[in-house]
Amino acid sequence: MTEKIRLDKYLVEMGLGSRSQIKEAAKKGRIQVNEEVETKTERKIDPQEDRVLFDSRRISYIKTEYYMLNKPCGVVSATRDNLHSTVLDLLEDRNRSDLFPVGRLDIDTEGLLLITNDGALAHRLLSPKHHVDKVYQAVIEGRLPQDAIQQFWHGITLTDGTITLPAVLTVLEVKETASPQTTVLLTIQEGKFHQVKRMFEALDCQVLYLKRKSMGCLLLDETLAPGEYRTLREDEILQLQQLT
């Protein structure tokens, strides 16, 4: 049996307005349930059986949504911000009003960002105790020490004394110029504030470019240009749920 929910909650979650706005719309006869005008917003609705219309438009109830975004530079990983565009502003055809990014990427960091309203899944993906790998590609300025791979594996001591969990560093390319640059992949299982940048700063290097490539089994769809997104496929959702 489908769990029933209040009509106002149904419409708020589908992004039709606040509870007070929904209540006002009901008073004006703008809401119909099963072809009849409904003025009582506290009425319980069966999302699978009842037909809800708002301004004569059918409003289907979607319990959970999952989006893969290739986050571009210049937008913040937040639900709202007074200064910058947010990653939610990029999702023009989303249905629910309670979506949020799973974890944060810095404003100048690109790459994979999962956006959903599945709080339980988000918690499990972000919790260090579940050991979910997060893989980043980075371009580093400065010369890495010869034992950098070993240092990352044993845990980097940040400048504030924090010791990170073991991480896997893979060197992809080294450009020997006046200011050496190295392209690397870094796999971590936690997400401290500015962690990747701070790990390299502890080795006297600076991150020039940073892009997240994957989170657990979820790989960035490289056909997505920065700022583009798509819904997750059923198999991707299932794999994430099995992973955690």
What this model shows, in words?
The protein has 244 residues and is α+β, with helices and mostly antiparallel strands. It contains six helices and 15 strands. Strands 7, 8, 9, 10, 11, 12, 13, 14 and 15 form a nine-stranded mixed beta sheet that branches. It has a four-stranded antiparallel beta sheet with strand order 3-2-5-6, with no helix packed on it. It has a two-stranded antiparallel sheet with strand order 1-4. Strand 8 and strand 9 (110-116) form a beta hairpin. It starts with a strand and ends with a helix. The mean pLDDT is 93.
How much is the average pLDDT? 93
Question: Which percent bin holds the helix content?
Answer: 10-25%
β-strand percent reads 25-35%
Specify the overall morphology: elongated
Number of strands: 15
Number of helices: 6
Series of H and E elements: EHHEEEEEEEEHEHEEHEEEH
Key descriptive features of the protein:
single chain, 244 residues, 4-stranded antiparallel β-sheet, elongated
